[in-house]
Design a protein that fits this description.
The structure holds 2 protein chains of 2 kinds. Chain A is mainly beta. Chain A has no helices and 11 strands. In chain A, strands 2, 4, 5, 6, 9, 10 and 11 form a 7-stranded mixed sheet that branches. Chain A is globular. Chain B contains 1 helix and 9 strands. In chain B, the strands form 2 sheets. In chain B, strands 1, 3, 4, 7, 8 and 9 form a 6-stranded mixed sheet that branches. The longest helix of chain B has 4 residues, at 95-98. Chain B starts with 8 loop residues before the first strand and ends with a strand. Classes of the chains: A mainly beta, B mainly beta. The A-B interface holds A 35, 37, 44-47, 50, 59, 61-62, 95, 97, 101-109 and B 1, 3, 32, 34, 36, 38, 40, 45-48, 51-52, 57, 89, 91, 93, 96, 98-105.
């Protein structure tokens, strides 16, 4: 079955950087677009970024544009989110999710905390 | 891009029906038939309930149904059960500029 496993979260100081990873299995990874979605503690869901199946197009939310970059390695079945210039408001659970117009399968998330 | 507007909470007794609304604009909900709904229990990842306004993935009970009129989409839960108590989020595709937007979320309480 479809499995998505996020990793790379942790505590980072404001202004710092972090790279999140999402390992995929149970489906043909190179056939599907993948999203990053985040959820601040006690808050709602926020779409963060999307990458097409072949990496040819990438989209980022205005709130992270210029600071976060989504990428993928189809040979390794891996998705990444490079985050820089982190702010306190980036503190959240980060999920990867398979889909394009919707979010069919989700990982369990990795927690990012931006704090001094 | 502003979040889609949902009521903070709705409630109903077991067996009753509840409806959650999701209001956007002509640039998102009203402009595309790509509204989806997600159920999230505490401490868990969201789960897809409805896609393309009214379609249900395999395994989702037919007690869950979706619809759309203009810039407002709706999720109806019929025959409310205790396990339906959760947070519910709508989402809409918003074109290549803003791509996706989620709703503010609604807590459904089973009385």
């Amino acid at each position: 079955q479809v499995q998505l496993v996020e990793s790379g979260g942790g505590v980072v100081q404001p202004g710092g950087s972090l790279r999140l990873s999402c390992a995929a299995s149970g489906f043909t990874f190179s056939d599907y677009g993948i999203h990053w979605v985040r959820q601040a503690p006690g808050k709602g869901l926020e779409w963060v970024a999307f990458i097409r199946y072949d990496g040819s197009n990438k989209y980022h939310a205005d709130s992270v544009k210029g600071r976060f970059t989504i990428s993928r390695d189809n040979s390794k079945k891996m998705l990444y989110l490079q985050m820089s210039s982190l702010r306190a408001e980036d503190t959240a659970m980060y999920y990867c999710a398979k889909g394009y117009y919707d979010f069919w399968s989700w990982g369990q998330g990795t927690l990012v905390s931006v704090s001094s | 891009q502003s979040a889609l507007t949902q009521p903070p909470s709705v409630s109903g007794s077991p067996g009753q029906s509840v409806t959650v609304s999701c209001t956007g604009t002509s640039s998102d909900v009203g402009g595309y038939n790509y509204v989806s709904w997600y159920q999230q229990h505490p401490g868990k990842a969201p789960k897809l309930l409805i896609y393309e306004v009214s379609k249900r993935p395999s395994g989702v009970p037919d007690r869950f149904s979706g619809s759309k009129s203009g810039n407002t989409a709706s999720l109806t839960v019929s025959g409310l059960q205790a396990e339906d108590e959760a947070d519910y989020y709508c989402n809409s595709y918003a074109g290549s500029n803003n791509f996706h937007v989620f709703g503010t979320g609604t807590k459904v309480t089973v009385l």
